[in-house]
Write a structure and sequence with these properties.
three-stranded mixed β-sheet, 46% helix, six-stranded parallel β-sheet, 492 residues
């Protein structure tokens, strides 16, 4: 079978030679389905005239395959639109080449001398933005991403000195809070560790823009099970096939003037450049992630296994609607129409037939997720209405019920659903704590768990009427079962 290369695209009259304006640290599925997709569409729709140089972030990566395929790969975007399945296929062609800095370190540094290079993108996993004092300036390359970037910035500085407009707009996409600020902090530490001159420090701070970003797209990645079928349909072999949902949203915190350099909105792409990304982060965490976490134990102990099954069940769907529209959205700060639009898209994403969201997978690290994703909505609702939100509090009662266990081993804690064991995965100290409370009555269980400040960052028993409310719900779950108790809550 023919391999994917530019001869496949000749009929599309594709513009192959464009300026290398983006350096991308990371060649994984996410960036190729997210940022590279946006750049590719912008090249087509508004002549962004931009190519991406991809830098392999770890020693074993995809640079050889990317170069073999001339930077090309096929992306499938799949989801729902107007309650109908939609599937879009696009050959992404914005990548010019890939560099492995572990074997081509000088080629990596040479990119810093390109006067047209303006943007640096990264996704090196949550652990990627880190400082390691063992990294040395002369390492080829330094191990951490921030150290590599510091070395790259120094090469840029020594090439152009203090010449204006030769700094970069830096767009980290790692899933950590304030990723732009965290990256800048690490770079400053390397400047200090390596005793680099003060003029370079000033150049980094004044001539480079570190943007904190929020990224939102579920990337399902390499379609291993469909590979042969898709390659036959396409008529070529693609070793980098990629799949994702059709929803995507990118928020970039930065000055207003970078909109001219990143005119994604002109291409009708879902990219917002704002002066504060935090309201959008709060919206995503509390609606998308928060609802996921709030329904996990409720739905699983009602006999469901996936998010899609939840959306197909009228009672659970009603519970989700109440969570979102009655208890979460009223506590958020963005305009109501934006919140409702996002919430509607979330429900479409939950119904996406191309994505299997297993509830037990979502329950991983359940305690910390409930603390960061659900608890803030409980407190905000209480502050706004001077009463507790019924559905959100019910989710805490269901969380406690989910952790009712029958045994503990090296793999984790085991609960029972319809007399069949299920595995609960969380921090070991949390699992052992719940196991020791396995025979406690509902009041003792609720009181003791609520008081664990190391779980919640505060004592939940001090929230007015919280213990009493949770215990009533737990007692009712024991009496009538999770699903029937859920029906009662959703009809209040």
């Amino acid at each position: 079978m023919k391999k994917l290369d530019y001869s496949i695209l000749q009929a599309q009259n594709l513009k192959k030679n464009m300026e290398e304006r983006f350096l991308q640290i990371g060649e994984g599925n996410f960036l190729r389905a997210f940022v590279d997709y946006f750049i590719d569409v912008a090249n087509e729709k508004i002549d962004l005239n931009s190519k991406v140089v991809v830098v392999q972030p770890i020693e074993n990566g995809l640079s050889d395959i990317l170069n073999e395929q001339e930077g090309l790969y096929t992306l499938y975007l799949r989801g729902l639109q107007n309650n109908k399945k939609v599937e879009e296929k696009r050959i992404i062609s914005c990548i010019s080449r890939a560099i492995n800095p572990y074997t081509e370190f000088n080629s990596f540094l040479e990119c810093a001398k390109n006067p047209n290079l303006r943007f640096i993108i990264s996704n090196t996993t949550e652990a990627g933005i880190t400082f390691d004092q063992n990294c040395k300036f002369d390492d080829k390359p330094p191990i951490t991403f921030p150290a590599k970037l510091t070395r790259f910035l120094y090469e840029r500085y020594t090439t152009y000195g203090l010449e204006k407009d030769k700094g970069f707009i830096i767009l980290p996409c790692e899933l950590i809070d304030n990723n732009g600020e965290k990256l800048k902090e690490c770079i400053i530490k390397y400047i200090e560790l390596w005793n680099l001159d003060n003029k370079f420090y000033n150049w980094v701070i004044k001539e480079n823009i570190f943007c904190s970003t929020l990224v939102d797209r579920i990337v399902t990645g390499y379609p291993r099970l469909e590979l042969d079928k898709l390659n036959i349909e396409n008529g070529y072999e693609d070793k980098l096939l990629n799949t994702c949902e059709n929803f995507g949203f990118w928020v970039i915190e930065g000055p207003e003037n970078i909109k001219k350099e990143l005119p994604f909105e002109e291409a009708s792409l879902p990219v917002k450049i704002v002066n504060n990304h935090k309201p959008y982060k709060q919206r995503k965490v509390r609606i998308l992630n928060g609802v996921h976490t709030a329904i996990v134990s409720v739905a699983y102990l009602s006999g469901k296994d996936t998010v899609l099954e939840c959306m197909e069940d009228p009672t659970i769907k009603n519970f989700i609607d109440k969570l979102i529209y009655n208890e979460i959205i009223p506590t958020l700060t963005l305009p109501k129409e934006e919140l409702i639009s996002f919430a509607n898209s979330v429900e479409d994403r939950f119904k996406n037939p191309f994505i299997v969201h297993n509830l037990l997978s979502i329950s991983l690290n359940f305690t910390s997720k409930w603390k960061t994703r659900v608890l803030p909505s409980v407190k905000a609702y209480l502050e706004k209405n001077n009463e507790l939100p019924e559905c959100l509090v019910f989710s805490f009662a269901a969380y406690l019920k989910f952790f009712r266990s029958v045994r503990l081993d090296e793999k984790g804690l085991y609960g029972l659903r319809e007399n069949k064991e299920y595995l609960i995965s969380d921090d070991r100290d949390i699992l052992e704590y719940f196991y020791n409370l396995r025979n406690a009555d509902n009041f003792t269980l609720t009181s003791e768990v609520s008081k664990q400040e190391n779980f919640w960052g505060e004592d939940l028993s001090k929230i007015p009427n919280f213990i009493e409310n949770v215990v009533l719900k737990l007692n009712n779950i024991d009496k009538v079962g999770m699903y029937n108790a859920l029906k009662e809550v959703t009809t209040l």
